[in-house]
Amino acid sequence: MASSSISHSLEKEFSQSELRDLSELFDACDLTSKQYIDLNTLRAMFCLLGYQASHKPTLAIVKDLDLNHKKLSFEDFLQCLVVKQGDTYDPYSELKHVFDRLSEGKEDIDQDTLVRKCRELGVSLSLQQVREMMDIADRNGDGLVNLQEFITIMMQTNLFQFLR
């Protein structure tokens, strides 16, 4: 579990529920279980949270905060996220962007594509977890997740609500 000892100033930025969810995301992306991530993993996590995260701007955030881009702790991740939240944010265009990346430009996301994309992003999920995610998001029962279903489910999650 990502470190629970974070600064008081960061505790004020997030609710306990958000911190728990962000900690779970951090742990899922920390493939080495050493409680640290690198810059590429940070970028992937920003993308999972609906942000565009190219290399140079993400590196600039890390450098501005005087952090080590090769060894970012959970608290470092939260500091970077606070800075990233200050960016202009359009949730629908961001969600469409994320959907397009996950669906590989197709109209729907299928289970195999979601499994592959999770692996590419370094997110460790079991096949059962992916099935459950698909079942929850698939409102029309066709076994696929379309853009509207994706937006609906993302707008309902704790991880997305605090970014609005």
UniProtKB/TrEMBL annotation:
Matching CDD domains: EFh (cd00051)
Transmembrane regions listed in the UniProt entry: none
Annotated EF-hand domain residues: 125-160
The protein, known as: EF-hand domain-containing protein
Keyword Calcium carried by entry: yes
Keywords of the record: Calcium, Repeat
GO MF: calcium ion binding
Source taxon at top rank: Eukaryota
Alphabetized InterPro entries for the sequence: Centrin_CML-like, EF-hand-dom_pair, EF_Hand_1_Ca_BS, EF_hand_dom
Keyword Transport: no
